[in-house]
Structures are given as C-alpha cells and as structure tokens.
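Study this pair:
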Amino acid sequence: QLQLVESGGGLVQPGGSLRLSCAASRFTLGNYAIGWFRQAPGKEREGVLCISRAGGTTNYTDSVKGRFTISRDNTKNMVYLQMNSLKPEDTAVYYCAGRGTFCGRSGADFGSWGQGTQVTVSS
C-alpha cells in the first residue's frame, strides 16, 4: 500500500500562503493520481484538488478556485498543494491520498492516505 506523509502545515494569517507537501517512501508518486482533501472540525471530509498520473488536475471544490494549485515534481517524488490568499474557512487538517492513474470522484475512490497536517488560518 502506498505510504504517504504530509508536511508544511501551520498557523498563517488570513491572506497568507502555505505550501503543503506530500511525500512517499519506497514508492514513485509519479505512478499515481494524488489528491488533497481536508476536514475541518465538525465537518465532513472535503476534496480539494487532485493531479492525475499524466498531470491533469481535478478541482473538487469551487471554494479554492484561483487560490490553490496542485503540482508534482517527479524528480523529487513530491506532490504539492500551494495555497494562497488563505481564509479562516480553509482551516482544517489536510490529507493527501493516492490511487491509480486517474483522479477519483471523491475520497472514497482513494485507497491510501497520509496522517494529515494541520492548517490554521487565524489572525
């Protein structure tokens, strides 16, 4: 099973930026579709963005359009979530998840998950 580790979370002021990273050991992330999901306290898990094996992207929520981007660096075996213009409502635990070649329709389509990284947007 693909083992994923997220990093890069933290506390940031509204309007600030963070870049989350998703890494894998012993696996080549470039062979998988990788999605970013988030879960805020008391809320259901929400899909954010996904990048397919070929590099195509899927946006799961309109709330991050124009602010978040997903990318991958196969030379470093990493997938990134660049988050700009952060808002308090972006506060959540962010997870990366992996599956086969193509992005799934929802988190239920992803079989491998990281432990998550906390993002808190607050002044």
